[in-house]
Amino acid sequence: MIENLFATPVWYTKLNLPEEIRADLLMQVEKNYQTHKEYIHPKWPCVIHTSHQGSGGDCDDEINNLNYQKFLPYLHREYGKYSKQIELPAHDYQIQECWYNYYTRGSNQENHTHLAHREGPFKSIFSGIYFLKMKPGDSQVQFPNENGFRYASYASNYYDMYKYMECMREYAAYGEEDYILLFPSFSQHRVTTQKTDGPRITISF
Predict the structure, then answer these.
(1) DSSP designation for 109
(2) 91, 178, 202, 199: which is closest to 189 by C-alpha?
(3) Angstrom distance (rounded) from CA 94 to CA 200
(4) pTM (2 d.p.)
(5) With bands split at pLDDT 50, 70 and 90, how would you rate the model's confidence at 2?
């Protein structure tokens, strides 16, 4: 009998963000993009415009200057539901940072986690993505099967065997407009190359 090993609980649901808040976020992102569209994160091995600045004293507040205050209560609401469902005890937490990613044709995001990008004592435990603007055909966020991902790809002497095992190479994909996705920060994820003109806009936190 086949059983699944090490399920990863994620929270994926429609946020139903009020239209005035969505419109305000879109306006802010588009304005920021038009001003800073040449900016590419210097430490990311991918091609994408983002407002993410990393941590440290070299951040440019002009690039990540959006006001998320009206948006944050909806993130707290969904995190409360998620943490209750996975039976976490009551706890204090904070949303450390928010940034947007702006995808146009040719943009992509490499396979990565959210564990190592932050310096200092406050590490990320859970992460989230809000799909602010998506249309059919836009790239989704993919979560590869980590149990077999490295072995089923180029990095193994056993590739000739694993390449026939679809279950070891499979991935889960998420992404619909006005949906939110919450997941453990250790989870490997990526966005394949955008093949439509876009923009495809997400807000991560």
Answers:
(1) E
(2) 202
(3) 27
(4) 0.88
(5) confident
